[in-house]
Design goal:
Number of helices of chain A: 8
Strand order of the largest sheet of chain A: 4-3-5-2-6-7-8
Strand content of chain B: 25-35%
Distance between the termini of chain A: 56 Å
Number of strands of chain B: 6
Radius of gyration of chain A: 17 Å
Structural class of chain A: alpha/beta
Order of helices and strands of chain B: HEHEEEEEH
Distance between the termini of chain B: 43 Å
Strand content of chain A: 15-25%
CATH topology of chain A: Rossmann fold
Number of strands of chain A: 8
Shape of chain B: elongated
CATH architecture of one domain in chain B: 2-Layer Sandwich
Largest sheet of chain A: 7 strands, parallel
Number of helices of chain B: 3
Oligomer: heterodimer
Helix content of chain B: 25-40%
Largest sheet of chain B: 3 strands, mixed
Largest interface: A-B, 33 and 40 residues
Helix content of chain A: 25-40%
Structural class of chain B: alpha+beta
Strand order of the largest sheet of chain B: 2-1-6
CATH class of one domain in chain B: Alpha Beta
Number of domains of chain A: 1
Order of helices and strands of chain A: EHEHEHEHEEHHEHEH
Chain lengths: 214, 119
């Protein structure tokens, strides 16, 4: 006998994500899910944004192991919680639920969640964020949007980092951009360099514009 | 390895739905844009169901290709690697299929085969 089920397998995660989003909404905390492959510059980009936001910021750092990134963030004297997933390839909504218990979100206006360095799994897991961004970097190559459409198709913005390396790398920006807009018209694309600061201001201005709780 | 958690979820859902009847088959629908791999789900399923009533149940995977609706001419197409619309040759479209990830149905053994003959 056949029994129809038609049930979203990620429903349990999505329900917790909904609770997280309610928490963020109630406290007016604008939450950004930052995704990228390892070494693309997630932490650097967050650190560049913090002084430019002129606002109260908190960070949740996701890593398989170590507290290297959270220590970097803590030097800015802002609240940070480290999640070590112990091998798990993405953050999920319940990990965020636990992490926000350790953060005092009262008065916080921006919460960055730095996801695990990985262009595959984080795409599937809603954390309760308001926007999701992916950071891609020039040395990774211009084909990343074509190879990881699952992630690039779900983001609100793509930050192309390390553009100071463009003279040294075969990287076709038009090809890269086409790979994004072909499956994600709404995504904003910001070429930046954390090394030279080029483009960082316009990305941060966009972020401020997105924040409904300013 | 994120298939472990989702496989546990699949087992929980189908066990609830089967109401104690033996499950012969579980049909999963997975879009090609989702990040889940059939072989990996199968691997964890086999491990997790060892010596349980679910042992030996068949997992069937229905894979859904990505389908776009062309931004320009609005025709639906299954894209090639560069997302070129075969109708108007422009690039890209809105994603209308390919993100699916759900349990479609299960096949359970009938409680009373004789009475089911007439249904």
């Amino acid at each position: 006998m056949k029994i129809e089920i038609v049930k979203n397998i990620l429903e349990a995660n999505d329900q917790v994500a909904l609770l997280n989003r309610e928490t963020f909404n109630n406290l007016n905390v604008f939450t950004v899910n930052v995704m990228a492959s390892p070494g693309a510059g997630k932490t650097s980009l967050i650190l560049e944004a913090i002084p430019r936001l002129n606002s109260s910021v908190a960070v949740i750092e996701g890593d398989v192991a170590s507290s290297i990134d959270s220590e970097k963030v803590a030097r800015f004297n802002i609240p940070v919680v480290q999640i070590n997933t112990g091998g798990n390839c993405h953050l999920d909504a319940s990990m965020i639920r636990e992490a926000i218990k350790k953060l005092s979100l009262e008065g916080i206006r921006y919460l960055f969640i730095e996801n695990i360095g990985n262009l595959i799994c984080p795409a599937s897991f809603d954390l309760g964020e308001h926007i999701r961004i992916v950071i891609s970097s020039v040395p990774e190559g211009d084909d990343k949007p074509y190879k990881y459409p699952g992630l690039f198709s779900t983001v609100d913005a793509v930050i192309l980092n390390k553009i100071d390396l463009l003279p040294y790398v075969d990287f076709n920006i038009e090809y890269f951009k086409n790979g994004i807009t072909a499956i994600n018209k709404k995504a904003k694309i910001f070429p930046v360099s954390c090394k030279t600061d080029e483009g960082i201001d316009s990305w941060v201005e966009w972020l401020k514009g997105e924040n409904r709780y300013k | 390895m994120h298939e472990l958690a989702v496989t546990e979820e699949i087992i929980k859902v189908v066990t609830d739905a089967s109401k104690g009847r033996r499950i012969r088959e579980i049909v999963l629908v997975i879009g090609n844009l989702s990040s889940f791999i059939d072989e990996s789900i199968q691997f964890y399923f086999d491990k997790l169901t060892e010596s349980t009533p679910l042992e030996g149940a068949k997992l069937s995977f229905k894979r859904i290709p990505v389908k776009l609706r062309c931004y320009r001419c609005r025709e639906e197409f299954i894209p090639d690697e560069e997302y070129i619309c075969p109708y108007c040759k422009s690039i890209g479209g809105d994603i209308i299929e390919g993100r699916e990830f759900y349990i479609e149905s299960i096949e359970v053994e009938d409680e009373d085969r004789d009475s089911k003959e007439y249904t």
